Amino acid sequence: MKTSFIDKKQSEDRISCLGDNKLNHIAIIMDGNGRWAQKRGMPRVAGHKEGLTTVVKVVKSAVKCKVKYLTLYTFSTENWKRPKSEIDFILKLPMEFLNRYLPELIANNVRIETIGDVAYLPVYTRKALQYATKRTRNNDGLQLNFALNYGSRHEILLAMKEMYLDINHAKLSLDNVDEQLFSQYLNTAGMPEPDLLIRTGGEKRLSNFLLWQLAYTEFWFTDVLWPDFSEEEFMRALDEYQQRKRRFGGI
Ligand code: IPE
Ligand code: IPE
Ligand code: MG
């Protein structure tokens, strides 16, 4: 039997994610897995594994709140600096996650996508993601983006090169290049910019995540380590976001 993320009782509860600020897209830097494990005398990878349960909780909450896009920073272009054993472990997790949760994601109308230079990922990671993407292509609920081998500077450089080629091949005129058009060369083409960025794990930096797209995003930081991040904490972030006055340079 298919299990659903949302039971009837939950869906009837009033949820605090509502407010005047639009909330189409949430981006999350899921940080603190290694420290979570080390605090418990466990190997760092145990934290990555535990972090999967938080992913499920957050996806559930995002579905409940009718968020249209959720982008999760899963593996950065800088994370290749880590020991090979840790990299291998992290890059197996998308496959494990999808093997276990894809039916639930489908039951909840979630569409899976990836952003980042996925060509460099191991073949089993790419296959699992390709299968999930294809299988969920027609779902029109939450779009869940996994940012894998993602780095914003790399993304911007690739976009620039591709644009240069289009100009060179006369597919595009330099006069027509504006912010809107440039955005369409990024991995996030067609998606709204994030309204809210959440970073767990205590650090207050972007670590090369969505530098262009976050220009007017509201930021919310917490010391809570990703495996401990709860639905209550997520709702707190959304609630605080709804208190923000977004001016976009106006008055
Ligand atoms: C975030 O947790 C997950 C990835 C970067 C893949 P970390 O592994 O960075 O955990 P800390 O920051 O070392 O605690
Ligand atoms: C950011 O976390 C990358 C991901 C969560 C995938 P890091 O742990 O790699 O960031 P730094 O090294 O603290 O900046
Ligand atoms: Mg970290």
Explain what the structure shows:
The structure is a single chain. The chain has a single domain (18-151, 193-243), classed as Undecaprenyl pyrophosphate synthetase (3-Layer(aba) Sandwich). It has 251 residues and is an alpha/beta fold. The chain has a 6-stranded parallel sheet, with helices on both faces. It is 42% helix and 14% strand. The longest helix has 24 residues, at 84-107. Helix 2 (33-39) packs across helix 3, helix 3 packs parallel to helix 4 and helix 4 (84-107) runs parallel beside helix 5 (123-135). The structure holds 3-methylbut-3-enyl trihydrogen diphosphate (2 copies) and magnesium ion. Its EC number is 2.5.1.-.
* First-last Cα distance: 53 Å
How many domains, as an integer? 1
Biggest sheet overview: 6 strands, parallel
Structural class from helices and strands?
A: alpha/beta
Which homologous superfamily in CATH is the superfamily?
Decaprenyl diphosphate synthase-like
Mean pLDDT: 95
Shape: globular
Corresponding CATH architecture? 3-Layer(aba) Sandwich
- Uncertain segments: none
CATH topology: the name is: Undecaprenyl pyrophosphate synthetase
The strand count comes to 6
Helical amount: 40-55%
What is the H/E order? Answer: HEHHEHEHEHHEEH
How many helices? The count is: 8
The small molecules bound here are:
3-methylbut-3-enyl trihydrogen diphosphate, magnesium ion
Strand order of the largest sheet: 3-4-2-1-5-6
Highest-level CATH class: Alpha Beta
Beta-strand portion reads 5-15%
